[in-house]
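Aim 2 progress. For Type II toxin-antitoxin system VapB family antitoxin, the working sequence is reproduced below.
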Amino acid sequence: MRTNIEIDEDLISEAMKVTGHKTKKATVEEGLKLIIQLNQQSKIRKLRGKLTWNGDLEKMRFDQ
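Predicted structure tokens for this construct:
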């Protein structure tokens, strides 16, 4: 899908440098994927301490 947006040139240039992407499109797509990933990780972190696990960790370590 084609979308026209105004992006700060300094911001996109710096993002392209740190990611190594050669195009603005690739840089923006990686940024969007990162936002989604961080949001999903946040949802998972909210489950911390709320789930129970039953198993034998020592046995699992030595199972082949």
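The mean pLDDT is 92. This observation will guide construct design in the next reporting period.
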